[in-house]
Design goal:
The protein starts with a helix and ends with a helix. The chain contains six helices and no strands. The chain is mainly alpha-helical. 79% of the residues lie in helices and 0% in strands. The chain has helices at 2-28, 31-34, 40-43, 49-53, 55-75, 80-95.
Amino acid sequence: NQSIDHFSGFGIGLGLLFQITDDLLDVEGNSALTGKATGKDSDLGKLTFPSLLGLTESRRLAESLSSLLKSKTKQMPLSNGSKKSLSQLVDYVLYRDH
């Protein structure tokens, strides 16, 4: 079913965007806002987007993925209000500080 594909792809992409943002926050986030010390992933030797791609490319990837997700919402069989809400969710994940 095409609707399932749209929602599934959106969910996978949103999860990936969340992970990229989380990895970026671990490097350059404010520990008072995130509630955890920065650099923890690196200290544990975890592979992260910034460790693999660098900060600049990780940010670019997050922004590109955000744009892609927003365009996907336009194709979903939803009301305009629901599409706008999903687009706002993408922005929240991209620009979150905690």
